[in-house]
Amino acid sequence: MATILLLEPHPLLRLGLRHLLAQAHVPGDLIDLDPAGLNDPDPWTHHADLLLFGLPADAEAGWQTLADLCRRLSPLRVLVLADHLPAPLPEAGLPDAVRGLLAKTCSADALEAAIRLVLAGGECFPSQLPPTRAAEPSLPDARHDAAPIVVPLHAVPALPGGATPAAMETPAAGAHLLNITERQYEVLALLARGYPIKTVSRLLNISVATAKTHACTLYQRLHVRNKGEAVYVALQRGATLNWTGPTPAKPTHVPMAPLAAREACEAA
């Protein structure tokens, strides 16, 4: 399950992002960090799968803050939201963990697609911005302590008047749209949610080798090299990849008394 850190200085935008992530089919927890409380971060904020970072109006100070956060929290991936694009970049280059840069004015669908793509191992940069890396972190000013808010992503109630979540895409519909098999679609949808191939094989009740074969075959069908590119191409073709996964099979219950009676009759 993915752990997503959310750091956005604007309260209303932060609330909107929390609502969007709660409605998205992303397995895991959202940790809402207070921008004023990062001096002594809690242990559970370290090594998160994704840091969603809202760049403040003072871009230079914002990049310094992000570099320091990457040094102290070590997020695996960072998706930056800027007020406008192209955004002013740090002189030393982007921090190594940055995997995407979006405008805060982008649509909810575009943001959700970018989050899925980055979690799947891809990158999401505007065409005007080459993804330069290797920034040396610099220390920001001291801040006051504050506890982060941890929200299960599927437990936030819908806001009144909010947008209706997109209908869940079925494997049949997604497979038809992408011209792949339903099983290949299931593998792709689970990979897009950040699951490793071993977890995918377990969820689909197939061997790891079979899951890898399905993944390699769908990469060939989509003309891509890895899961990040596959997710990107699928989203570009109109797929949502929001299939929630297979329904757990109900255990078969056989009453013991009739079974014992039947065995006794067979023995007689």
Task: Describe, in short, the structure shown.
This protein has 268 residues and is α/β, with parallel strands linked by helices.
Layout of secondary structure:
Blueprint: E1 2-7, H1 11-23, E2 28-32, E3 50-54, H2 59-73, E4 78-82, E5 98-103, H3 108-119, E6 149-152, H4 171-178, H5 182-192, H6 197-203, H7 208-222, H8 227-236, H9 256-267
Parallel strand pairs: 1-2, 1-3, 3-4, 4-5
Antiparallel strand pairs: 2-6
Domain HTH luxR-type: 173-238
Pfam family, one: GerE
Keywords: DNA-binding
Features:
elongated; disordered C terminus; 9 helices; Rossmann fold; alpha/beta; six-stranded mixed beta sheet; Arc Repressor Mutant, subunit A; single chain; 6 strands; 268 residues
Descriptive account of the structure:
There is one protein chain. The protein is α/β, with parallel strands linked by helices. Among the domains are: 3-120, Rossmann fold, CATH 3.40.50.2300; 171-237, Winged helix-like DNA-binding domain superfamily/Winged helix DNA-binding domain (Arc Repressor Mutant, subunit A, Orthogonal Bundle), CATH 1.10.10.10. It has nine helices and six strands. It has helices spanning 11-23, 59-73, 108-119, 171-178, 182-192, 197-203, 208-222, 227-236, 256-267, and strands at 2-7, 28-32, 50-54, 78-82, 98-103, 149-152. It has a six-stranded mixed β-sheet with strand order 5-4-3-1-2-6, covered by helices on one side. Helix 7 crosses helix 8. The longest helix has 15 residues, at 59-73. The radius of gyration is 22 Å and the shape is elongated. This is DNA-binding response regulator. Keywords: DNA-binding. It comes from Cupriavidus pauculus. Residues 173-238 form the HTH luxR-type domain. Pfam families: GerE.
